[in-house]
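tool=predict chain=A
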Amino acid sequence: MGYVYLALAIVLELCGTTCMKLSDGFSQKFFAAGTLIFFGVCFYFSALSMKTLPLNIVYATWSGLGIVLAAVIAKIFFHESISTPGLIGIILIVIGVVLCNFFGANH
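tool=predict ok
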């Protein structure tokens, strides 16, 4: 169940990050409220995932996949560019998350 909670936390974090971008510096109240709500619920599910998963696995997966998926959202929906060094960094993040999950403290 820990990984289900973690997946929900990641999805909600991405919703919160997208709302933050759409809030235009928190000047758009609807998206500003969405940012706060999504992040609040995201932290709740992240905490639930830590009941059964170690902190290092939860945080590495949550932050790593959040960064990667946020970059994908930025590229697709906001037409932001990703430089070659940025792309290399994203690939390294994915490798790090995989290594933490397969060879981390639980294994």
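The mean pLDDT is 93. Residues 55-77 form the longest helix (23 residues).
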